[in-house]
Amino acid sequence: MKTQKQSRLDVLEKKTEAVIRIVQQLIQENDNCKQLAFGTLETVKLMPDYDKALEDLKTKTLEKNVDEKLD
Length: 71
Prior knowledge:
Shape: elongated
Order of helices and strands: HH
Distance between the termini: 68 Å
Oligomer: single chain
Helix content: over 70%
Largest sheet: none
Strand content: under 5%
Number of helices: 2
Structural class: mainly alpha
Number of domains: 1
Number of strands: 0
C-alpha cells in the first residue's frame, strides 16, 4: 500500500517540477518579448517623421472611436 502512495507521490512531484520548468520558460519568453518590443519602439522613435506618424495614428484612432460611438 505504501508503495502505491509513494509511487503516486513521485508522479505528482515530477509533474509539479515539469510545470515549474514550463512556467519559468514562459516567464523568460515573456521577458524576451518585452525586451524586443521595447527595443523595436526605441528604434522606431529614431526614424524620421516619427512624431508626425504618431499624431496621424492618434487622429485616426479618435476618428474611429467617434465613428463607432455614432453607430
